[in-house]
Amino acid sequence: MIQKIVQIVPRLPPYTDGEGDYSLMLAEQLLEQHNLKTHFLVCRPDVYSETTIKGFPITVLPSLTTEAFLSVFPPMLKILFYNTAITLIFKEN
To answer: Would you list the domain boundaries of the chain?
Structure first.
């Protein structure tokens, strides 16, 4: 079974952001070393409009509401917290 990791970040490169930069490096290493795929959820629609970065898909949260947040996810199996970022792991259908 392939697992996918969703990383929730305020923004991604080219913006300089410690969480976004780190999350992208983490995604590259997880793919290379463990074949884990990453999908990014960007929480700042006002600053980000790309749909992919280095081959990883991006979903931009349309608004900062609970409904918008929950609308982009399938049922979750496990939630892991790392530093100030949230990583969600779920089964691929």
So the answer is: 3-91
